[in-house]
Amino acid sequence: MLGNMQKYQILPFTFKSICKDKILLVNQVGEFIVLNFNDFQRFKSIGLNCNEELYSDLKAKHLLADTNDGLDLAVDLLATKLRTRKAFLVNFTALHMMVVTLRCNCRCTYCHASSVDIHKKNFDMTWNIAKNTIDIIFQTPAPAIKIEFQGGEPLLNWDIIKESVLYAEFLNKFINKQVDFIICTNLINIDKDKLDFCKKHHILISTSLDGYRQHHDLHRKTVDGSSAYGSFIRNLKLTQEILGVDNCSALLTITKDNIKDLRSIIDHYVELGFKSIFLRALNPYGNAVINYKDLGYTINEFITAYKDALDYIIQLNIKGTNFVESYTTLLLSRILTPFSTGFVDLQSPSGAGISGAIYYYNGEVYPADEARMLARMGDRKFYIGHVLKDKYKDIFNGSVIRDIVYNSCVENMPICADCAYQQYCGADPIRNYLETKDIVGNRLCSDFCYKNENILDYLFKLIIENNPDVMSVFWSWITKRTLEEVKIENN
Amino acid sequence: MPDNMMTSICLSSLVYERQAIVNASHKFSEAFHIHIDLENDQYKITFKAKAKGEESIDKLQMFTNEVLEQQVRLDLNKQFGNLRDLIYQKAFSVVEVVNAR
Description:
heterodimer, A: alpha/beta, TIM Barrel, 9-stranded mixed beta sheet, 3-stranded antiparallel beta sheet, 16 strands, 42% helix, B: alpha+beta, 3 strands
């Protein structure tokens, strides 16, 4: 393939026009460089000289290799880096979500989980199912696992949570994995006894907060008519006192009623002691679909709000408040570091089943939270097995998981295969199926694709601008250090 | 582009590969019904807008640039496609762990 006169070998990359007259080149392991149009032309037509600075830059970024003796080494290095970037595949399956009940003490207008009446105890997970679920979970090869208790409102089936934690800890005496526990709760039913148990067993709390009282109570309706916000604030204080502020985080659901107030909502998160926020768009599942007219917004409205909120959070950090936007941090880690980041919703192949699995109250297993929501809406396409009827291998090595893996590698999916953001992005086959009835999906009409491309465009704009204050904030998020620590190191 | 109006673009098959035309056409398939034909060393790509309006004309003007970009991708892939496959093969090959002792 190489002509005798060829000075260098171009290594695999994807590219896109970005900003004005700039071309972003990203290699197979996510390393990038930005070139002007003329340099790009010279590079691709083998017109660079080995003594110019650009040549060295491209070589350092593994976008070209010397043809004499550098090619084998470059291929080996890229293979090693790619292996590191795909390390999440080795940790099969890290996140295990147990839906311990479908009962809930709220009737949220956007509820994804399609919860049921608080008195319908036949929608609780039984001990037999919980025990078999944990037996299955501990057969996963991943050395570090997270067991996340979900609902409905999981605290309504507290005894099963408690027994599950104790049984998992007992099993782990013989298996020796790193095990973390998380409870996803609206905090209404939390109390001192439960929190003492959480503290003793190092259980983290993941909760939800939609903003101030007017935001939170608007869509989070309690079944007894009391203010969900009132209970939240009261019990958050108790939770933070017992567990510490770092062991309780909150998720924000953005609707058309709070999308224009993100700045003040971020202030509220800071006031309440939260260290981070995850700016996520409303997902098309459960009640969110039924009530979309009253809740939804266009994807462009979301992107505009995201950018404004991100700018605001960056400025907060620069002014001295350490506060993280979690989705941005995930993307920046992929752009600026060589490490593997295991985020189920954004992996290639998809994290469904590989990185996460969900165990329904009745023992059914699904590869992702969205898959069980789809099942609740009547479509069981992604059902992968049952904890009482199937063995671990049958559940996780069946045709559904194989089909998902085979059809969710962005490296060979239409449009994604050529996308410069391929290494930072991922596939969401379940959402694809929901929107197009095809797990490969269609990127041309996908909000998921449009959102990620626009967010990555914006992050690259900021990276190219290279403002030292902004970049220090980004590095403080990626490295989980304070801005002061990052600045001291840079100086 | 008025409703039901069809527009055709002709591109030389000596300059562009079939794959570049198909890839570019796919990217425009959300806005247009597209038919591709080959006549005397020329690809004839016929577009029929799915919706009325000037927006379709604007989009169509970007088609030839998209074909060009797709051809650049194909040309580059000829240079490094085998290396990409080799890197994936090596990255996912079984590693022999050497005992340091």
